[in-house]
Amino acid sequence: MNSSKKLGLLLITPAAIVVVMLFLVPVVLTAVFAFTNMSTSTGISGGAYQISPNALQELRDHYDMPSVAERLSQSGFAVDEPGLAALGKAGIDADIVTELRGHIGETFAARRDAERAIRNLNHRPSLREVKQISDQFNRSIMNARYDSKAALLAAVASVMPNLSGAEHQAIIAASYTGWTWTTGNFRRMASIPGTQRSLVNTMVYVAFTLTLFNIGFAMVLAITTFYMPSRAAGFFRGVWLLPRISPPVIYVLLWKWLAWDTGFLSVFLGRFGIHSRNWMLDSGTNAWVFVVLINGFVGASMGMLIFSSALQAIPRPLLYASEVDGASRWQQIWHIIMPQLRWPILFVTCYQTLSLLTSFDLILLSTNGGPGGSTEVWALATYHTALNNYAGNLEYGYGAAMALVLVVVGVFLSLAYLRLFNYRDLVAKPLIEH
Amino acid sequence: MRILLDGFTKSFGPMTVIDKMTLEIRDGEMLALLGPSGCGKSTTLFAICGIHKISAGRILFGDRDVTNVASQQRNVGVVFQSYALYPHMTVAENIAFPLEVKKLKAAEIKRQVDQMAELVHIEELMKRRPAELSGGQQQRVALARALVRKPDVLLLDEPLANLDSKLRLEMRSEIRRLQLATGITAILVTHDQVEAMSMCDRIAIMNAGEIVQIATPGEMYRNPRTEFVAGFLGNPPIAFLHGVATSGGFASVGGEAIALPASVPLPPPGSKLTLGIRPEHFGPTGNIPIRGRISFIETQGRENLYDVTLPSGSMLRSIQPLRGDVALNEEIEWSIAGDRILVFDEHGTRL
To answer: What CATH number matches the domain at A194-426, 3.40.50.720, 1.10.10.10, 3.40.50.620, 1.10.3720.10?
Structure first.
């Protein structure tokens, strides 16, 4: 390796670090999280063990141990020797202890029943003593939190001493409240209807925005400005760049002002007797029209610039030749200009597909996926699942799995596009010596 | 078809590059628009084919006034300097394009395209794309495309500029052959006097937006109207001597006195004059001897070109069959053919 190559590596290091930290690490972490069931309720650090109703449900359904679940749920209050011994230490009147010894072996399903029995003892313990006594006989492990497996197993053993190893493992797994590794996210994704809806929404979003605006409208702009005098052309291109350079929040806010029930549209149409309404969120179709318009007006500018420069690069004599050959303006556009724009069109298609697949900012700001989820595209659904939703239980693991699907789709599309563009040829060493 | 430019004027913004030019191209004639770059010859061509709108005047194709007719409707065939073949179409599709846009029937298009391919000898190239053709082949395709719609006029914009010298020679005669075979009226724009002289019936020589002279190549060579025309035509070029008229002769700036024959019309003594002497009119034979030193010998194969520096520092050229008896820096006394001397006044106008 010569010194200039070393210098190159040195110079690229800061950028490489930033790229790794901001792009590679998140992707890797997404892939890791996708195989967990992390959520707000599991937390992202470790968890505890708790025999919750959910845990019992899982024991019954998932581990097929209904009898174990039954026993665990019925564990309650039991008068036993260890409890009596503890009462002695706690300073309870010896007469009460002696009387309780006569009830040894009795169990109660609930604290209420146990305390009623204690209150009815002949020695009439005080209210405070009733509490102390019932605490000592509390053998219930329902909903109690244990910090370690050992503590959990000890508690379980006090209720059910004769459990097998498999049953222990099942109880540990079912009662764990922290996150665990799982492939369940993908099974769930394949089975729930919301997935299909997000997929269809994404396709509608990408297809309409891309064909109508990012390619179609961009082409119209590029070609019309191409035939204009240069000063007017520059002005129009500038106008169509405005959505791109205005702050997204302000930009979407303007659309909202236009569309909502006291906005411009409603006021204007009100003059013709049309009832005011929120035009953006009135129906799914309306919402889609606005989503496509909002994204399209921003997205068209890139295609416009690329197509415009490609048009400028067409040799003038080619256009002259087609004119003297008798081609009308339309024939000129169709037969001469469009074939020359094949690669720019392909490039914009590829680039914008990838960027539309992952972008949801303008949808988030405008419809937020509504009304009723009809404009909720995959990326937005991911965001809602993992980072911000109404129910408050943020499912990081499931969200990461959804994001991973996007990453995989994006990588595959990129590879396909690079192949399409003959990337290897583009970067190949030229055959001609310079 | 006869083409007439009548008072043709072209301005780009405030700058008028061609002012009230009138030019007639006769039916079936091949005319060269010859001139240095920037003289307005391509502008004229673009005006005839309608790519540039003209600022004033009229353009007539036959009796039809096409001044305000779009280039699509003018029925002209143009061969551009870069050939402007459509890169995404095959040769056949390129040639067929002018017919395709007229929406002719496919069979008819094919018949005409094949006929044209046969005419320009490219039958075996029809499936190729322009990028797979040599310069000469591209040129032939461009000619076929220009001719296929049977245009009223064929316009050639520096068609040979991008070819190597051997191909240029071949295409020169090829273009002329096609023009004669089709009998089409043609206009050749070129800055190369050899092309203009060898290919065309007449030459219109242009300078600074004006036509200086229109004549057949031979007439223009023998009888140039101005110093500019004399200097532009001829290879190797004419040599000029600057000086003043004396009684019965000419005195160069450096002091050479040259007695001129009575056939040469002379202005009053003291007027500024320029003598033009072509290389073939200065040599061992002639009637006005002049002494000089051979300062350069250029071997051209069949002939030698000698640069002769006169005592005053002025220079004459002489082209002669090969001879071994003179060497560089040798003093010689050769003669000018006095009746062939071209005399121009101080404005460059021929006397």
So the answer is: 1.10.3720.10
